[in-house]
Amino acid sequence: MAGKRFQGSLFGFNKGAVNTYLESLTRDYEEKLTSKDLEIEKTMSQLKKVSAKYEELKLEEERIYTEKEKISKALVSANEKADKIVADARDRVAAEVAELKAAAEKEREKIVDIKKEMIRMKADAASMVAVFEKAIKSIAAGEKVKAEAAVLPEENAPAGEEHAAADEPAAADEPAAESAEPASEDEESGDDFFG
């Protein structure tokens, strides 16, 4: 612009050349101004996009941080609940084991008592069998004496012995009666046993 030369005229510079030059300058200036406005507008648009993206990322960061806090609290709460559940389960299992051990001990005691009772019952039964066998042998011995007395002929017996032989069955009856008495006592003990 400083190097521009205008043609001279009678009264100064040529107005047409000056006006043409000024118009050219104005056009160039307007074009540059328009170009700069477009650049500014483009830059502002980009700035708006970047600002919007920044706000979006900022909101996303806040959301992620909030979610992280929630997850962290949930994990802590879940761990506490899990620990409590495990502790409660252990307590319940320990109590059940103790109850089962106590029940098993009672059952063992019952079994020991039952075994003792069975041993006592076997001993009582063996004792009763021995008493019954003794009574049966006593009765059998009495029957044998009676049978032998019946077999002896009366004519072979002396007169004094004939009378004694007649008395023998009564004497033979006495051991049977005596042997019957222990049997009755055993029967009573048998009643006690079964009673």
- SSE order, as H and E? EEHH
Please give the oligomerization state of what you see. Answer: single chain
Q: How many domains?
A: 1
Largest sheet: 2 strands, antiparallel
Which parts are unreliable, with pLDDT below 50 for 5 consecutive residues or more?
159-195
Average pLDDT taken over every residue: 77
Radius of gyration: 68 Å
Shape: rod-shaped
Q: Assign the structural class, choosing from mainly alpha, mainly beta, alpha/beta, alpha+beta, or little secondary structure.
A: mainly alpha
> Number of DSSP strands?
2
Strand content: under 5%
Strand order of the largest sheet: 1-2
Percent helix range: over 70%
Number of helices: 2
Note the gap between the termini.
Answer: 145 Å
Features:
disordered C terminus, 89% helix, 2% strand, two-stranded antiparallel ribbon, mainly alpha, 195 residues
